[in-house]
C-alpha cells in the first residue's frame, strides 16, 4: 500500500513515456523511478528509518517529485513546507514534526540560517540545485552519492505518509496525519468521477506542490494513472497559457486566482487551447462570473470541487454529475458520507444551512501529537467536523459560510489569531482584530482593525511591514484600519461580526 509503488507500476508499464515535462526537457517514467530508488537508498544511508520525518522546502521542480517518492519508498514521512513561510514558521513546523532531514531548494535554503541550532532533531540539510554546498549542508548530488543499493521497506495502509501543516484557531499550524491508505483512497475516489485522468493526458502542474491539492491531485494521482505532469515553476498568466498550448496540455488543475487572471489577460482569446479536455478548480470558492466567462470566452468548462487538507483533499466535485452547476461544489465522491448538522450535531432540515461533517477512507488520522485538537473535530462516531457551513439543494452542496473565522487567501489558510499575535507584538498596538475581506483576485484578503496605544501614531505600511518579519506575505494585512476601540461582548471577546459590518 505504499503510494510510491504506484509510480513503480507506471514505470514498469510505460518506462519510455514522459512522466514529467520540465524546463530542462522530459523525464521518463523509467528515469524517474531509477532516481527515486537512488534517493531512497540515500535516505537510508543517512541513518533514517521507517517513520522518520523528511521535510521538503522545494518549488515545482523534479527534485520535489524525486524526494517525495524516495522518502515514501524508504518508509519515511514527508513534511511539505510552504516556501513563502518565514524562518519562525519553518522552525515551528520542523521542530513540531521532529524532522531529521530537510531537502531545500537553493532559493529557499537561507531561511534555515540561524534556526538549525534550535532544532536538535535535525541532522541533515540537503540543498537541491546548488553546485557547491552552503556551509554545514550537502548538495543533492553529494547526498545521492552517499547512498548504496536500495532495500525495499514494507509499508502498511495505515502507516503515515504525509504530514502537511494546516493553521489552527490557536494560531499555530498543526500537522494533519495522512496515511498511505488515505492518499490512495482519494485516488480511487477521483478515478470514479468524470474527471478521471487518462494515460494520454498532460496535466498542468503550476500549483505549488507543497499544497495538498497540487500534491495528491495534480502530481500523485496523475503519475499513478501513467499520465504526464507539465511542471511549471511559477504562474505567469500569459506565459502559462502559452506553455499549455505549446505542450498541448489536456487537463488544467487550478485555483480561482489562476482563472481570474486568465480571463482578464489581454490576448487570452488568441491562444490555442483546443487541447484542453477539462479544467478543475479547488482550494477556494470560484466566483460564478469567472466560471461563466471562462466557458463563454474560452470554451472550457471548469469543474469545481471542495476538500480540505484533512481529507486528502477531495470531498465533493461537480464532476459526480454530468453538467457544471455554477456556485455548487457538487456531490460527495464515492465512499464519502456527508451530512449537514446543527450545533447539537443533529441533521438540519432540507434547505437549511448546517456544518459539513464527513466520514470516509480519505479522512485523516488526526493531528500530529495533538489528541485534544483531534477530539475537537472528530467525534466518537468518526465524523470529521469541517467547520464549513453549507446548504444541500437536490443533492448538490453549496458552501455559504465558514463556521470559524478562517480566511482563505488564494486557497491558503489564514487564521486571525496567528496574525493578531504578531500585531500585538508591535510596540504601538494596544489591541487588534483580524478578519477577511473580499478580494477580486485572491478570493479574500486579510484586513486588520487596529487600536493604537494612547499618543501613538502609525501608518498602514508600517503595520504591514512589521507583520512581514514574522509571517508569510499572504498572511499579512493588505488593509489596515485604525479605530479608537473594538466592539466586545460581555466576556471581553471581540465581536468580529460587527467589524465585518
How would you briefly describe this protein structure?
Helix content is 28%, strand content 25%. It has 501 residues and is α/β, with parallel strands linked by helices. It has a domain at 407-500: 2-Layer Sandwich (GMP Synthetase, Chain A, domain 3), CATH 3.30.300.
Give keywords.
alpha/beta; 501 residues; GMP Synthetase, Chain A, domain 3; single chain; five-stranded parallel β-sheet; five-stranded mixed β-sheet
Describe this entry's structure for a reader.
- This protein has 501 residues and is of the alpha/beta class.
- It has a domain of 94 residues: ANL, C-terminal domain (GMP Synthetase, Chain A, domain 3, 2-Layer Sandwich).
- It is built from 14 helices and 27 strands.
- The strands form 8 sheets. A 5-stranded parallel sheet has the order 4-3-5-6-7. It has a 5-stranded mixed sheet with strand order 14-15-16-17-18.
- Strand 23 and strand 24 form a beta hairpin.
- Helix 1 runs antiparallel to helix 2, helix 2 crosses helix 3 and helix 6 crosses helix 7.
- The N and C termini lie far apart (51 Å).
- The mean pLDDT is 92.
The share of residues in extended strands comes to 25-35%
Instruction: Show unreliable segments.
Output: none
What is the CATH first-level class name of the domain at 407-500? Alpha Beta
What gross morphology would you assign?
A: globular
Please summarize the sheet with the most strands.
5 strands, parallel
Q: What secondary-structure arrangement, pairings included, does this model have?
A:
Layout: H1 4-13, E1 18-22, E2 25-28, H2 29-45, E3 53-57, H3 62-73, E4 77-80, H4 87-97, E5 101-105, E6 124-128, E7 138-139, H5 140-145, E8 160-162, E9 165-166, E10 174-175, E11 178-179, H6 180-190, E12 202-205, H7 212-224, E13 228-231, H8 237-247, E14 251-254, H9 256-263, E15 278-281, H10 288-298, E16 302-307, E17 314-317, E18 331-332, E19 337-341, E20 354-359, H11 371-377, E21 384-393, E22 396-402, E23 407-409, E24 412-414, H12 416-423, E25 429-439, E26 443-452, H13 460-468, E27 479-482, H14 496-500
Parallel strand pairs: 1-13, 3-4, 3-5, 5-6, 6-7, 12-13, 14-15, 15-16, 26-27
Antiparallel strand pairs: 1-2, 8-11, 9-10, 16-17, 17-18, 19-20, 20-21, 21-22, 23-24, 25-26
Helix pairs in contact: 1-2, 2-3, 6-7, 9-10
Amino acid at each position: 500500500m505504499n503510494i510510491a509503488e504506484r509510480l513503480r507500476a507506471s514505470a514498469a508499464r510505460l518506462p519510455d513515456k514522459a512522466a514529467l515535462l520540465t524546463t530542462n526537457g522530459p523525464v521518463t517514467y523509467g528515469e524517474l523511478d531509477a532516481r527515486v530508488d537512488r534517493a531512497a537508498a540515500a535516505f537510508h544511508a543517512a541513518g533514517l528509518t521507517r517513520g522518520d520525518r523528511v521535510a521538503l522546502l522545494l518549488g515545482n521542480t523534479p527534485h520535489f517529485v524525486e524526494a517525495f517518492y524516495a522518502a515514501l519508498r524508504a518508509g519515511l514521512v514527508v513534511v511539505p513546507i510552504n516556501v513563502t513561510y518565514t524562518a519562525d514558521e519553518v522552525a515551528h513546523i520542523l521542530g513540531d514534526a521532529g524532522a531529521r532531514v530537510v531537502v531545500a531548494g537553493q532559493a529557499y535554503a537561507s531561511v534555515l540560517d540561524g534556526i538549525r541550532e534550535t532544532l536538535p532533531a535535525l541532522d541533515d540539510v540537503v540543498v537541491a540545485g546548488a553546485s557547491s554546498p552552503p556551509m554545514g549542508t550537502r548538495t543533492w548530488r553529494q547526498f545521492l552519492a552517499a547512498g548504496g543499493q536500495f532495500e525495499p521497506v514494507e509499508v502498511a495502509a495505515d502507516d503515515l505518509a504525509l504530514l502537511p501543516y494546516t493553521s489552527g484557531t490557536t494560531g499555530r499550524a498543526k500537522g494533519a496525519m495522512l496515511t498511505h491508505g488515505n492518499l490512495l483512497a482519494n485516488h480511487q475516489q477521483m478515478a470514479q468521477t468524470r474527471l478521471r485522468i487518462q494515460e494520454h493526458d498532460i496535466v498542468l502542474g503550476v500549483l505549488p506542490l507543497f499544497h495538498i491539492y497540487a500534491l495528491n491531485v495534480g502530481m500523485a494521482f496523475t503519475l499513478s494513472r501513467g499520465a504526464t505532469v507539465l511542471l511549471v515553476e511559477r504562474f505567469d498568466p500569459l506565459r502559462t497559457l502559452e506553455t499549455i498550448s505549446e505542450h498541448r496540455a489536456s487537463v488544467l488543475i487550478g485555483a480561482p486566482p489562476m482563472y481570474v487572471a486568465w480571463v482578464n489577460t489581454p490576448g487570452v482569446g488568441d491562444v490555442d487551447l483546443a487541447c484542453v479536455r477539462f479544467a478543475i478548480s479547488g482550494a477556494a470558492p470560484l466566483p460564478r462570473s469567472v466560471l461563466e466567462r471562462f466557458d463563454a470566452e474560452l470554451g472550457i468548462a471548469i469543474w469545481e470541487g471542495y476538500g480540505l487538507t484533512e481529507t486528502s483533499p477531495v470531498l465533493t466535485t461537480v464532476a459526480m454529475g454530468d453538467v457544471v452547476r455554477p456556485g455548487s461544489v457538487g456531490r460527495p465522491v464515492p465512499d464519502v458520507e456527508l451530512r449537514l448538522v446543527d450545533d447539537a450535531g443533529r441533521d438540519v432540515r432540507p434547505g437549511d444551512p448546517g456544518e459539513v461533517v464527513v466520514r470516509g477512507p480519505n479522512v485523516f488520522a488526526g493531528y500530529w501529537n495533538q489528541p485534544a485538537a483531534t477530539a475537537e473535530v472528530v467525534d466518537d462516531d468518526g465524523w470529521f467536523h469541517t467547520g464549513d457551513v453549507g446548504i444541500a439543494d437536490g443533492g448538490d452542496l453549496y458552501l455559504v459560510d465558514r463556521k470559524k473565522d478562517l480566511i482563505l487567501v488564494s486557497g491558503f489558510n489564514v487564521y486571525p489569531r496567528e496574525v493578531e499575535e504578531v500585531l500585538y507584538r508591535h510596540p504601538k498596538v494596544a489591541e487588534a482584530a483580524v478578519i477577511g475581506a473580499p478580494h477580486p483576485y485572491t478570493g479574500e484578503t486579510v484586513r486588520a482593525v487596529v487600536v493604537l496605544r494612547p499618543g501613538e501614531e502609525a501608518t498602514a505600511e508600517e503595520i504591514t511591514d512589521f507583520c512581514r518579519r514574522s509571517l508569510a506575505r499572504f498572511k499579512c494585512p493588505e488593509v489596515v484600519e485604525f479605530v479608537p476601540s473594538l466592539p466586545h461582548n460581555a466576556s471581553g471577546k471581540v465581536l468580529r461580526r460587527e467589524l465585518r459590518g
